[in-house]
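User: structure tokens for this one?
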Amino acid sequence: MFDQMKQAKQLYALQKELQKEKIEVEERGVKVVINGKMEVEEVVLDENSSPKDQEALVKKCFNDAMKKVQMVAAQKMQSMR
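Assistant:
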């Protein structure tokens, strides 16, 4: 039972730590910022790109940022062991 309480406290601390993380990915003038809770905090578009290019760049930036957030979370979970 004490082990479960200890793990719960560690997970809560990890969650709080992840909330502070911010991942920023920029590609050809388009920028996406995601926090550790996997919420989009900012999207900046390049006015000089066509809407189709902007759409593709936003998708790429978003997907790259999500992967990075997942990697950070996995690394932090590894450090808990």
